[in-house]
């Protein structure tokens, strides 16, 4: 009898223990989901700003626009000097700038120890196997052959700044050998201002245009990777597959699932470019582990694209750059109704340091500023 009671009590205790463990597991799972949703909306809200009253925005006058157009024409008509940008960057930054760096990842990256020192976006620490699989899908790793064969290549990096609106630089921008566009900045409906030629669309997953009409025929899609799940995303779009539903939770906004370009048009930005930009040239502190998101030691896509352009082309120009925080009612982007005041809420990037860097490049003659938002040579 006592033995029966003991066994019954033991059995009941074990059932309660299993039930308690099960409930703890559910509670832990629910907690993780709730925390994840909270973090998602915190990050999402940081990218949303109040709309601006466009009627208060000051538009560019025709005389200023004519000077900008004439200046762009002068830049295009002047003699092009081979290796000019690289030589000037080496002059300014010495050993901090590597003239021999490969702009895009090659299949032999696993043999380069330095590529795995840091985690993304500065390197591929603990991601060598995944990276190998993705690179196996990409047959090419350089500029198209017709551009490579040019004796002297001119790049223009087209930023998204509202300073472009009204300058009507579209025709001039289309004349450059390499036109680099950033994230989801549209050309449809804005051709007069920004042109439509797109040699490179440079973006991270959340920034990729959702509209198939924003991808230029034969243009390159250059993926900038910030987190490990971005590798899975680029693998999925190259293979024309859908991302698993659970994986979409790791992106702070909807990502494009169809990129209308061939596998030979995909490239992955060499994270050494981001490392060179942030840690060497801008001298940001070494990256520190964070539970979520990015720190201010990560440069913007824009300034990274300018450094990339110096590795790709002989001469480099930029347009659509410059944040004038003293003019809060100025249009922030050329394609929406956000005002400059929205930049006060921006906490991910060190805009002041980047502006100083770009001003140095323009004033030293390393790059040309066609829209005058960083430093105006034609005003």
TrEMBL record:
InterPro entries, A to Z: Glyco_trans_29, Glycosyltransferase_29, GT29-like_sf, Sialyl_trans
EC number annotated for this UniProt entry: 2.4.3.9
Pfam families: Glyco_transf_29
Catalytic activity: a beta-D-Gal-(1<->1')-ceramide + CMP-N-acetyl-beta-neuraminate = N-acetyl-alpha-neuraminosyl-(2->3)-beta-D-galactosyl-(1<->1')-ceramide + CMP + H(+); ganglioside GA2 (d18:1(4E)/18:0) + CMP-N-acetyl-beta-neuraminate = ganglioside GM2 (d18:1(4E)/18:0) + CMP + H(+); ganglioside GA1 (d18:1(4E)/18:0) + CMP-N-acetyl-beta-neuraminate = ganglioside GM1 (d18:1(4E)/18:0) + CMP + H(+); a beta-D-Gal-(1->4)-beta-D-Glc-(1<->1)-Cer(d18:1(4E)) + CMP-N-acetyl-beta-neuraminate = a ganglioside GM3 (d18:1(4E)) + CMP + H(+)
Main location: Golgi
Membrane topology field: Single-pass type II membrane protein
Keywords noted in UniProt: Disulfide bond, Glycoprotein, Glycosyltransferase, Golgi apparatus, Lipid metabolism, Membrane, Signal-anchor, Transferase, Transmembrane, Transmembrane helix
Record-annotated membrane-spanning stretches: 21-43
Localisation: Golgi apparatus membrane
Role according to the record: Transfers the sialyl group (N-acetyl-alpha-neuraminyl or NeuAc) from CMP-NeuAc to the non-reducing terminal galactose (Gal) of glycosphingolipids forming gangliosides (important molecules involved in the regulation of multiple cellular processes, including cell proliferation and differentiation, apoptosis, embryogenesis, development, and oncogenesis).
Family: Belongs to the glycosyltransferase 29 family.
Record's protein name: Lactosylceramide alpha-2,3-sialyltransferase
Gene source species: Gekko japonicus (Schlegel's Japanese gecko)
């Amino acid at each position: 009898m006592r033995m029966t009671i003991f066994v019954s009590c033991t059995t009941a205790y074990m059932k309660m223990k299993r039930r308690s463990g099960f409930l703890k597991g559910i509670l832990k799972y629910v907690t993780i989901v709730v925390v994840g949703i909270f973090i998602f909306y915190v990050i999402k809200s940081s990218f949303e700003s109040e709309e601006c009253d466009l009627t208060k925005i000051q538009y560019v006058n025709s005389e200023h626009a004519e000077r900008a157009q004439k200046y762009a024409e002068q830049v295009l008509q002047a003699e092009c000097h081979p290796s000019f940008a690289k030589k000037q960057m080496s002059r300014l930054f010495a050993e901090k700038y590597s003239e021999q760096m490969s702009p895009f990842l090659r299949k032999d990256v696993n043999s380069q120890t330095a590529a795995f020192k840091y985690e993304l976006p500065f390197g591929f620490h603990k991601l060598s196997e995944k990276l190998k699989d993705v690179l196996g899908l990409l047959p090419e790793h350089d500029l198209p052959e017709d551009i490579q064969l040019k004796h002297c290549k001119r790049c223009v990096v087209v930023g998204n700044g509202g300073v472009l609106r009204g300058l009507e630089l579209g025709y001039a921008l289309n004349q450059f050998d390499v036109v680099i566009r950033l994230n989801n900045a549209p050309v449809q409906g804005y051709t007069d201002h920004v042109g439509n030629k797109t040699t490179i669309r440079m973006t991270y997953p959340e920034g990729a245009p959702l509209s198939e009409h924003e991808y230029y025929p034969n243009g390159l899609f250059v993926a900038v990777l910030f987190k490990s799940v971005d590798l899975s995303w680029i693998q999925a779009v190259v293979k024309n597959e859908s991302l698993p539903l659970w994986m979409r939770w790791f992106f702070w906004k909807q990502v494009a699932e169809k990129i209308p370009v061939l596998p030979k048009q995909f490239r992955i930005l060499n994270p050494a470019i981001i490392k060179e930009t942030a840690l060497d040239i801008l001298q940001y502190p070494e990256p520190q582990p964070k539970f979520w998101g990015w720190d201010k030691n990560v440069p913007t896509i824009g300034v990274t694209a300018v450094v990339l352009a110096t590795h790709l082309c002989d001469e480099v120009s930029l347009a659509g750059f410059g944040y004038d925080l003293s003019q809060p009612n100025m249009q922030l982007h050329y394609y929406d109704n956000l005002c400059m005041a929205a930049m006060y809420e921006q906490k991910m990037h060190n805009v002041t340091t980047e502006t100083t860097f770009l001003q140095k490049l323009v004033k030293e003659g390393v790059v040309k500023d066609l829209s005058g938002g960083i430093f105006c040579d034609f005003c």
